[in-house]
Design a protein that fits this description.
Elements lengths: L1 H21 L24 E4 L4 E4 L9 E4 L4 E5 L14 E6 L3 E8 L11 E4 L5 E2 L5 E3 L4 E7 L4 E4 L6 H11 L6 E8 L5 E7 L9 E6 L6 H14 L4 H9 L1 E5 L4 H5 L22 H16 L4 E10 L3 E4 L11 H12 L9 E3 L7 H9 L2 E8 L4 H21 L1
Parallel strand pairs: 4-6, 14-15, 14-16, 16-19, 17-18
Antiparallel strand pairs: 1-2, 2-5, 3-4, 5-11, 6-10, 7-8, 7-11, 9-10, 12-13, 13-15, 17-19
Helix pairs in contact: 3-9, 4-9, 7-9
The structure holds zinc ion.
Length: about 400
Amino acid sequence: MRLRKQSLLFYFCTTLVAASCSTVKRLKFEKPVDTKSKRIHVQKKKVFQLDAMGLYATNDFLASRLNGFEMVNDSTAKVIITPENTPINNSPYYSFKLWSTTAKTYYLLFEYPEEYGHRYIPKLKRGAAAWKSADSLNFTYNYTDALLKIDVSKDTVWVSAQESVSSIDTKNWYSKLVKNKAYVHVGSAGESVLKRNLPVLDIYKNSAQNKPIVVLLTRQHPPELTGYFAFQSFVTTILNESKLSQSFLEKYRLLVFPIVNPDGVDLGHWRHNAGGIDTNRDWGKYRQPEIKNITRYIVKAAKETNSTVLVGIDFHSTQKDMYYTNETRHMTAHPDFIENWFAGIEKSLKSHAYIPEQERANSVKPVSKGWFLKYFNANTITYEIGDETPRDFVRLKAAVAADEMMKLLLKW
Ligand SMILES: [Zn+2]
């Protein structure tokens, strides 16, 4: 009888410990958002044939978006783009490939549902050449109308709202990056709604025990590629084996999530995941598997190593370069971190006359920026890059930002 009692007690305790290990406490925000799954419309993959014009288009590849393709006249076709569901932020993403029977100049007229307007300047890719923005002489647009003049031939031309990067491209990128770096532990935080992998690069030298954690994440919003390019440069700089990078990785641990919404990315979504939800509104109740799994991974990693998250940076894109920060900082480990960091970035980019622009306000909705502050008292930044910021500068600025962050954190 006594033995049974003891084993029951043991069972109860271990169950309790296991449950508390894997549970992420829910957080309250001033303006809660309902993140229960909603239906999405999945685009039909096909080749669109406008035989009378000799013009063809396809969306039959990863991260594409083309919902309709119609002839207007001999040289003009209508490109119809719709979102995965509504309501949704105005971020009409498109990506399709074109070819024609004979070499000819065509006009493409972009059409979105009535309440949405044009956002992205087309990026073009021909063969193995690099992506190029459409020439301003060939592209006229305002919010409601957008017209692209384009030379098409038998050789396929790829037209995309931003340079296309699928989940496979992302995997190829980080696999190459971490080659021969034994201190980068490539793992998985779990799966998305459609069972795609949620990769994590867990980076630490020797032991992870007691090391303060920096979390980097990106692509909650699929078309926000400029934020992703900044993220790539930031991570690459931290892993570049410079003296600074080596000292930093002796002292700190990094949790890097290169693709938070892989379903949305591969389905060519404007913003949401396959549950039809903006994942960056789910950081309070974790109703979507992407955020549930990623927050669980972070909380568990911190708990198991008797550590905490010091800094969280979430990379996005918007109309211009901008940093969203929290108003509350006094209870963070380093209340001056953000101001010092921006000062360092500004100083290093003096020759570019770049001044970091900051919008400082606590998150009222359940977004990652609010989550890191509420859960860990971490310094958090939503690192925004303009849609059309020159790519070289995006990369340079992120490399500088990574160096300045490492320098600053090594002082403490
Ligand atoms: Zn975003």
